[in-house]
Amino acid sequence: MNVTSSQAQTPNAEHSPLALLRDLVGRSAAATVGEGEPPAVRVERPKRADQGDYATNAAMLLAPRAGRPPRELAGTVASELAELMGGDLERHEIAGPGFINLFLSDGWHRGGLRTVLAAGERYGSGGASSPRRVLVEFVSANPTGPLVAASGRHAAYGDSLSRILEHHGHTVWREYYFNDAGGQIRLLGESVRARACGEEVPEGGYQGEYVRDLAERIEGSASLDADELAGRAIALLLREIEGTLERYGVHYDAYFSERTLHAGSPSYVERAFEVVAAGGHTYESDGALWLRTTSFGDDKDRVLRRSDGRVTYFAADLAYLLQKRERGVELQLLPVGSDHHGYVARMKAAFAALGGDPDDLEMPLIQFVHLVEGSERAAMSKRRGDFVTLDELLDEVGVDATRFFMLQRSHDRTVDLDLELARRESPENPVYYVQYAHARIVSMLGRLGPERLAAALAPGADWGSDPLDAAERELIKALLAFPDEVAEAAERRAPHRIVAYSLALAQQFTAFYRDCRVVGATPAEVESFRIALSEAARRTIATALRLLGVGAPDSM
RNA sequence: GCCCCCGUAGCUCAGCUGGAUAGAGCGACGGCCUUCUAAGCCGUGGGUCGCAGGUUCGAGUCCUGCCGGGGGCGCCA
After folding, report:
1. What pLDDT score does A3 carry?
2. In chain B, which nucleotides are within 7 Å of a protein Cβ?
3. Å from A138 (CA) to B22 (C1')?
């Protein structure tokens, strides 16, 4: 029974005071209307401080069901809740169309902080109601050149999403799939061979300077044939790509070779053909083998094997989908560039033809990053060779700022990255604001002895009972929002929400730091409480940054 | 022609799948360092949420149609 809400999944109530609160509101609402499922109430922060610590729409949701006006129901819900919460609920108001504004006690806030500290590293984790085995395949740029800057968005997105899903409670594999067979690879081999022999690259070939480098670095390149050169070039380029990604903080469980799908007898490609044929989803026409993807919503059928016997890339994609499913992957996430959106229907159809549920294959579309140099657009064509590589971008802007920038915007929006600005103003990037807050806390708490810190953080530490400062209450509420934010980011596949959260949390800490003296505060119980609050903020900032793959430095 | 994404402050963008008087950063203007890090803080100015309808107690959010920007539609990837 889902007693809580439509606000994503409910994180473990024991680690989330907010989830607990939602639970209580839901029960109060259910009690108000008698029998039936508790409604999926919302409990959220109102915009204005005088509207309470939290507000709920429970009564408005019940109104249609109960056939009574929301404000009337609100009174009953609120008194039910008051009974359940005792002194934690200081007072409540019924406002506007039927909101119940909740004013929570200082004791509730202090208890919330204890919960955060008790959860430790696990704070905000484990909210997935049904943990799944998830595979995220991302970047997967063909090793026909260095990674371009735009790949930095895919890499940051896929990696951060993986981290968030793991924190949320899923089991996650990260894979990079690369083509090392087929036409583009042959073309690469021919391009290298041409350069090795001092010739012009063939029509449509790869013209970048790196192709000459490859020709030089491969020993005896002039005397090797194109196939051999392609193989050597791919190995070199893949190693470089991996190096760039590692530098960027992106670690894969596997770099998956397309070629392995064609190997063995029967190969995965052949097995995949058998599976879809057994389902009656294939047919021969004009000498080619087709997959009837139109049965599953695609707008035309797709070729698996051409009339000349060669299989298509799509056939390999089909085989890879099968291979992943047979390994026990329950959810496949495949973020791709928005220019690949035409693939979504056929991939989902392929997955369905293999017997899968199309909902278990998701392909978030990632919009482009345009590199702008002042007012000019920097082009990024690999074949023409006039691109900015990810490595060059990292040299200019740095890993943390690049990741933060790439993740800051929702993935379905195009972004312009002004290199001039990034270079000049990188110290003013918001990422430093968040990191600065973290470093500041480390520095501040570093003034204390370890035993003082431990005493303040101890589960039974005396934090006194003085009225809390507004900034203290706000900071606690910012901390309590974290589990919901993780859940939201995970379920909407939206790492950018963690970026926004990290900024908001850093801002709340800074306001607290401005208003409340920590080290040396009197009496000692207040100092203890503020130490604990600062440490909880530090840990949560560090966790949020970790989910983004951004460092949390001790000093700046 | 069909399909996908977007249109919110001067600029770049959030807006928690329908809630109360729409927010942040940057830029502009004016202030703040003998006091736990000034990569910081405080204040001011800035909006017909592209346009027009619709759904309802309530729409930046959902539906329809336009307008504008970006991208995609092959036995290429």
Report:
1. 29
2. 3-6, 12-17, 19-27, 36-37, 39-42, 57, 69-77
3. 35
With CA of A435 and C1' of each nucleotide, the nearest comes out as B39
**Six-digit token pair at A314?**
């799509």
Instruction: Report helix, strand or coil for A425.
Output: helix
Within 10 A of A82 (CB to CB), how many other CB atoms are there? 17
Residue A101: which H helix or E strand, with range? Answer: strand A99-104
For residue A33, the number of C-alpha atoms closer than 13 Å in the C-beta half-sphere is 24
- Residue A499: which residues within 8 A CB-CB, separation 6 or more? A404, A407, A408, A548
Phi-psi region of A374 (alpha: psi -120 to 50; beta: other; left: phi over 0): left
Q: Show the low-confidence residues of chain A (pLDDT under 70).
A: 1-14, 35-37, 373-387, 423-428
Architecture of A430-548 per CATH?
Answer: Orthogonal Bundle (1.10)
Query: Tokens representing A546?
Result: 């970790």
Assigned CATH topology for domain A13-104: Gyrase A; domain 2 (3.30.1360)
Provide the CA A191 to C1' B18 distance, Å, integer: 57
Distance A521 CA to B64 C1' (A): 61
Distances (CA, A) of A436 to A63, A104, A250, A254, A550: 48, 31, 23, 35, 13
Whole-number Å distance, CA A348 to C1' B64?
28
Helix H, strand E, coil C: the string for A360-411 is: HEECCEECCEEEEECCEEECCCCCCCCCCEHHHHHHHHCHHHHHHHHHHCCC
ipTM attached to this prediction: 0.93
Provide, in whole angstroms, the distance separating residue A19's CA from nucleotide B38's C1': 39
CATH 1.10.730.10 segments of chain A: 430-548
Structure token digits, residue A511:
């306001």
Q: Which residue is nearest to nucleotide B25 (CA to C1')?
A: A430
Report the C-alpha gap between A65 and A79 in whole angstroms: 19
Q: Closest nucleotide (CA of A443 to C1')?
A: B37
Predicted local confidence at residue A424, as pLDDT: 65
